[in-house]
Request: fold
Amino acid sequence: QVQLVESGGGLVQAGGSLRLSCAASGSIFSINAMGWYRQAPGKQRELVATIASRGSTEYADSVEGRFTISRGNAKNTVILQMNSLKPEDTAVYYCNAAGVQTPRAPLSDYWGQGTQVTVSS
Reply:
């Protein structure tokens, strides 16, 4: 079983910053990529940012230049630094890991429980 634990959400004023952390643990053999998705009320879950095992990153256009995704110092951790936050960034943020539990297992997606980010105007 694989667990993803997120931390760092909260309430911040527009223009402020927040830092989200996510740690993956459990019976996982390797992780190909980790990332963050978000879901606002009444909207579909959307990609925010991802980082591959070799370090390449991808960002949603809406956060490019404001958010930075990076690997944490500990193994299987990922950080999302969010600067210049806007009210439209308000959502539940979910950590995602794409990995395998054994060398021959198919690639699977694992999700955290989500952390609320609220940006007030």
About this structure: The CA atoms of residues 50 and 56 lie 8 Å apart. The mean pLDDT is 95. The radius of gyration is 14 Å.
